[in-house]
Amino acid sequence: MPGRAWLWWAPAVLGGLYALTVLVHLHTILYSIGLSSDDDIDAVLAHMSMHAPAGSVLTTGDFPHYETMAFALLTRSLPFYRQLWELAPVAFAAIGLAAVVWSAWQAFGRWPAAVTASVLVCFSGGGVATIAAGGLATVFAFDAHSNTVITAAVCCAGLVWILPRIEALSLWRLAGAAAVLGVLGGLPLAGDDLYLAWGVGPLLAVITLAAWRGPQNVAARTLAFGVFAAAVTGLTSLAFAALMRDAGVRGFTNSYHALVRFTTPAGLVTNFETLLRALPSLTASSFYGKALTARSELELINALLLFAALFTVAWSVRNRVAGSLPRAAGGGEAISQRFVHTVFWSTTLGLGLLIFMLGSPAGWTTDGRYLLGPYVAITALLPMLLERGLGWKLAVSAAASVFALSTLYQFPSDLKEMGAGYQSAKVANAVAAYAKRERVAVGYGDYWNSIDLIWNSDFKVDIYPIQACVPSARRGNRFDLCTFTGISISGWDKPRAGVRSLLVIHATARQAARQIHRGDRALGPPIASTRIGTLMLYVYPYDIAAKLRRTRLTF
User: Fold this and answer.
1) Cβ-based neighbours of 498, under 8 Å, separated by 6 or more
2) Looking at residue 366, what is its pLDDT?
3) Per-residue pLDDT tens over the stretch 336-373
4) CA torsion through residues 433, 434, 439, 442, sign
5) Phi and psi based region of residue 355 (left: phi greater than 0; alpha: psi -120 to 50; beta: remaining)
6) Per-residue confidence at 143, pLDDT binned at 50, 70, 90?
7) Which entry of 16, 83, 205, 206 is 20 to 30 Å from 502 by CA?
8) Are 503 and 444 in contact (CB under 8 A)?
9) Alpha-carbon distance 246 to 236, whole Å?
10) Residues 443, 552: contact at Cβ < 8 Å?
11) Are strands 440-445 and 528-532 parallel, antiparallel or unpaired?
12) Of 417, 450, 476, which residue is a domain's last?
C-alpha cells in the first residue's frame, strides 16, 4: 500500500535511533570500555614507551597488535593523543560500517542496504559489563580484531567498485588499485591471522570465480589483478611485521597459536558449544544461566534472530550456488557488483566459521571477537533474503525491527551495568594521590589492577603488572610473586635504587593480606597502608621488584 510504504523503512529508523543513542552516551561507553586492562594495552604501552630506554621490548596481548600499536606509537606525540586513542576506534568502526552499507547499496539497492545498516549498527551492550561481555566493547576497543574486519569491509567495497569496471580501467590504474588493497590487507595480516579467513581468502575466491564466470577476454587481467593484490598483501605483511619486531613490538605468544591448532574430535563439540555462547555475545545477548526476566527474554530473542539469520543466509547462498547457470564456453557476462559482494561475504562467513570450529578457541564468551568477521558477513548477506518475494521481505523487515527494538530496550540496563567489577577513574585517581602523598615512585599489582589504573588515572601513577607463580617446592597455600611477562615493557621489573614502591592487591586476597600484616619475611613490613575501594595498598621503603620470584605471597 503506497500510503504505508514508510513501514518498510522502520528498521532503518530504529537503527538510526539506536546509533543516535550510542552517540549521546558515547563518553560513558568509552569510559566503561577503558576500565578493562585488556582494552588499554596498546595505549598504555605506547605512552609508557615514551619514557622507556631505547631498545625496550613492548609485549602486547595474545597476538601481536602490530597495526594498532603502530597507530598508537605514531600518534603518541600529538596533542590530545589520549582523546585520539579513545575516539579513533569509533571513527574506524564508522568507516567499516559505511563500507559494508555502500557495498550492499551498490549490489542490492538502497532499501536492502538500509536494512543491513540497521542490523549492523545495533550492537547491544553499551560497553563492558563483565570480562565475558561483548557488544560495543568488541568494536570500540583498540585491540579486539575490529581493525581486521574493517579492513576486510573496505577491501570488499574496493572490489565491488573495481571488478565490474576491470575492462575499462588502464593497467596502471589496476596495478595501483591492487597495490592499495594489498597494503591495506597486509597491515592487519602482519599480526592477525584471522585476516586470512576474513580478507585474503575472500579476495582469492572473488578473483578466481570472477575470472572463471566473467568474460573470457578479461579473465587474464582479472587473475593478474588478484595475484598482484594477494602478493602485495603478503609482502606488506612480512615487511610490516619485521618493521614492528625491529621496533620492539611483539605478542607474548605466536599469533593465534591456539586458535589455529586443529581441535580433537571431542573438541568439535566444545567448539560448537562455544559458538552458541560466543556469537550471541557480540550483541551482548548472553542470556545463558540468567533468571527469566524481560531482559533475558529479549536477549534470547536477539540470539534466536541472529542464528535464524545465519541459517537462512547460508541456505540462500547454497541455493544461489545450486541454481547458477553453467559457465558458457566463451565466458559469461560482465561481473556484477552483486556477484562480488555476495562471493566476498559468503567466503568470509564460511571460512570464519570453519576456522572457529576446527581450531581451538578458549571456552569463553569473549571468543565472540573471533566471530566478528562472520557476524558482519551475516548482516552483509541479509539483502539476499529480500530478493525472495514479498513474504521474505516482510519477515526480514519485521525481524530487523524487532532486533533493533530489543537492542534499544536493553540499552538503559546495559548503561547501568557498564564497568561492573572494574576499578573506576575515581579509584585510580585516589591511588595516584595516595602514591604521590607517600612519595612512591613505582607500584605493582595483578594484571586487572595495574594497566587499568595507569590508564584511568590519566598516567598519573605507574602500577606494573605482576603475578603469582607456582614455586618448584610448594609450601602450604603460598606461591612465589613473579613478574608478569605476558603484557609488559622490558625493564618494568628492574629494581630502582633509593625509591619507595607500592603493592596493590584486591581486598578479597585475604591470604596475601594476612601475610603482609604478619610482616612477610621476604618483603618485610610495609611502612604505610590504606584501603581505597576494593583495593589494599601497601607502601615499602624500597623497590619490591628486587624481591620478585623470591617472595612467598598468595595473590
Assistant:
1) none
2) 58
3) 999 999 999 999 999 999 988 887 666 555 567 888 99
4) negative
5) alpha
6) confident
7) 83
8) yes
9) 15
10) no
11) unpaired
12) 417
Phi, psi of 443 (to 5 degrees): -130, 165
Residues whose CB falls within 8 Å of the CB of residue 214, separated by 6 or more in sequence, listed in order = 222, 331, 332, 333, 334, 335
Q: Are residues 203 and 96 in the same domain?
A: yes
Is the residue at 252 inside a domain? Answer: yes
Q: Which domain-ending residue is among 356, 389, 417?
A: 417
**Same domain, residue pair 411 and 517:** no
Q: Domain tally for the chain?
A: 2
Cell of 537: 595498598
Yes or no: say if 312 and 385 are a contact pair by the CB < 8 Å rule: yes
Quote the CA–CA distance of 379 and 402 in Å, as a whole number.
15
**What is the C-alpha to C-alpha distance for residues 397 and 399, in angstroms, rounded to an integer?**
5
Sheet holding 463-469, edge to edge: 480-483, 463-469, 440-445, 500-506, 535-540, 528-532
Distances (CA, A) of 298 to 128, 295, 382, 417: 19, 5, 21, 17
CA-closest candidate to residue 466, choices 545, 372, 386, 375: 545
- Residue 15 in this model has a pLDDT that exceeds 80: yes
Task: Read off the DSSP letter of residue 247.
Answer: T
Give the span between the Cα atoms of 72 and 322, in whole angstroms. Answer: 47
Any idea which residue has 568502526 for its cell? Answer: 93
Cell numbers for 362: 578458549
Q: Is residue 390 located within the same domain as residue 499? A: no
Residues 162-219 pLDDT 10s: 999 999 999 999 999 999 999 999 999 998 889 999 999 999 999 999 999 888 889 9
* Consecutive H or E run containing 442: strand 440-445
Map grid coordinates 612512591 to a residue. 440
| Model confidence, pTM | 0.90
Backbone φ and ψ for 532, nearest 5 degrees, come out as: -130, 110
Contact indicator for 504, 449 with CB cutoff of 8 Å: yes
C-alpha distances in angstroms, 512 versus 164, 481, 509, 534, 554? 66, 11, 6, 14, 5
Q: Are 307 and 277 in contact (CB under 8 A)?
A: no
| Residue 231, CA distances (Å) to 173, 182, 184, 198, 226 in order | 17, 7, 12, 17, 8
Residue labelled with grid coordinates 540462500: 316
- Would you say 543 and 509 are in contact if contact means Cβ atoms under 8 Å apart? no
457: three-class secondary structure by DSSP: coil
- DSSP bridge pairs for 529: 538
pLDDT averaged over every residue in the chain: 84
